[in-house]
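Chapter summary example.
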Amino acid sequence: MASNLKNLSVFDSPVPSAKGMSFGIVVAEWNSQITIPLLEGAVKLLKEQGCEEGDIIIKKVPGTYELTLASQFMCEYTDVDAVIALGCVIQGETRHFDFICQGVTHGINHVALEYNTPIAFGVLTVDNLEQAKDRAGGKLGNKGEEAAATAIKMAVIKNEMEESEQ
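The structure predicted for these 166 residues follows.
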């Protein structure tokens, strides 16, 4: 559904408890006026759902493109239940936007499949700063909260599947 029609912080189904789970968050420093509110939204939702602050690992990377490798590092070097990747790419005058968006989208998907770990895609790909602000705590809610809810839901599904296999 197009986000201009939906508040990103209102969920269609309840968000499960995150009690006893751990999460890695990788966040881009580029466009920090947007990514910091995304980070704050993600952490807020994780805590509201019962995740302890000590069970949230946050790593900052220079830009959105670096989220892929940072997500891989989270999967390799920690024991998190899920990763949340947060970034913002704003359309400019060149094709740079297209290359970054395509690279990070494919990269994060590849890492999630390779490491069998849920990675929530909280990357804004917008036409302008106003659209980014609207999705980072503005009139359309907070994509960081949505990404955190997705990470929790996917971690629960994975954990349930692993338990049923035993």
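To summarize the output: The beta strands are 23-28, 56-61, 82-90, 119-126, 136-138, 141-142.
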